[in-house]
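Hi Y.,

Following your request, here is the sequence exactly as I used it, all 392 residues.
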Amino acid sequence: MVETTGGEGDSRVEALRARLTRRDVIRGVAGTGIALSIAGFSRPGAHAQDASPTAGPPIKVAFVYVSPVGDLGWTWAHDQGRLALEQTLPNVETSYQESVPENPADAERVIRDFAQKGNQIVVTTSFGYMQPTINVAKDFPDTTFVHISGYMTAENVSTAFGKIEEPRYVSGLIAGKMTKSNQLGYVAAFPIPEVIRGINAFTLGVRKANPAATVKVVWTNTWFDPQKERQAADALLDGGADVITQHQDTAAPQQAAEARGAYGVGYDADMSPLAPKAVLTSPIWHWGVYYIDLVRQVQAGTWQSNQYWGGWKDGLVDLAPIAPMVPEDVRAMGETEAAKFRNGEQTIYTVFTGPLKDQSGEEKVPVGQAMTDEALLTMDWFVEGVEGDPTP
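Below is the corresponding structure, written out as tokens. Let me know if you'd prefer a different format.
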């Protein structure tokens, strides 16, 4: 059923109790063509307009979600962006369908239905929707399609993602100061560049704050499976980790940490309400920043296919409030570093600037050299200090 707006969404706590699976990602996607189109990446605001039309029929925008809007993770963050879009711009009508499987038949059916219903913009928010989006777009040349996290574009198809690695780095600085055992655990989803970049950025932050610390990775091959992800966190805690972080949509790793008297770093949304004694902070998304600009471009007739990759200074990514149990000096350090990203003084390029070695000690990035977009978006190696296999 297609759901339309009219409420603030499900309670975070109640929704998290539901068990579900988000997106299935095919291993090895890093080598399937991402690097072919990096040069086309744009930064937000390039076509933004100061005002939006208020006369005439409303512009209709549809969203395809892979899980329920109340998952407190990826889909919840996108739906908050949809609500921000409605609240910010006049003359906009949105709709969505949640829990859409990533198999081609189901995904294409839902995407096509939204296009046939006259939505001028259709946003598909999971990696597995990439090819179905491209397929449907061929039949609706006057409709604007946006695929989140993919790499395939067309004349009427854009892609969008963000530099979540930036707040991950700052969360690593905080976590590195909070560990006592010098062992941190990372519950990771799939071994793809998006996840590997996050692990590396977090670890660089940890090691900047605490050179003696290491980060151990356990792969779950899930996006949202509370039971499996909690088991992975428990295994890391059994191995001596006293801070647990994650690239998952469930707060189960944070709840495992809290149950054991350990600390944690959440993801996607502020997870502190579900594990208040554990969560130090969480790297989070503000998708409304992108969706508002996207609609303004379409309304003004200035939209062109591109590949959006926004960062902290653009407002797309952020860090949730730092928890009260973090000492004042550590909090001040984290807030100072966060401010550098927000004002553009520091970027992910300076985080991933040499000298950088991989976990075997081999130099991967020379002194003073920053990694390129292409290198970041195809990253398949772990930095020094990570324990685990980047290509299991």
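The CA atoms of residues 360 and 384 lie 7 Å apart.

Thanks again,
Q.
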